[in-house]
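Hey,
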Amino acid sequence: MHTAIVTSLDDHVAVIELNRPPANYFDTVLIREITDAADALVAEGARAIVLASAGKHFCAGANFSNGEMAGDRAESTRVLYQEAARLFDIAVPVIAAVQGSAVGGGVGLACAADFRVAAPSTRFHANFSMLGFHQGFGLSVTLPEIVGPRHALDLLGASRRITGQQALEIGLADRLVADGKQRAEAVRWARDFAAAAPLAVQSIKRTLRGPLAARVRAVLDHERQEQIRLWATNDSRIGIEANLARQSPAFTGT
């Protein structure tokens, strides 16, 4: 049976690997498995978690060509965001090892981690405006918190695609390593946290991340309502159809 994730635990460092290569599209099942696995791994003694992916890309976000997002998007998104909010309750530090591309909600997943390790070949692309709708997955809070409001507006409003080096320069990536070394670096970094007093680390994270988690929960419903409103527009239809056809959209403002 193909599972959405694969996990391991070694010397208090856990790895949660998205296992839907090559694009690693997410849905409610995958996000729920990540959060359930994180809780279980912490209970088993994990002191830090590396979030990684099998295959070419970190995560291409939601799949609009099939699966739950091709059906009732409003209800699917409501359930998805309930699970996504739980990512911000993970008790230990989470480091995302970002290979290939993080696109759309995949950027949101990377930003739900505490830290991101990238490489020159890594690409971040919060492409919501080119799909004709509002960003989600808490990015309205997490992205400006990480890179500042000015860079967040540029990345989201222009759907700007940036490299790992550019991500490092604006703070979206915390460390830049050679291609193919992202996971190894993330594990090394996680071992620094695992060597510290675990109750102290959890207490520190809870204090520093607590307000962020509350803000994300507050904004998720707004993001969803804006997405529902914009999904009904011609521009969203144009953007999604162009994306699936790998063409450039010609928006009409309607």
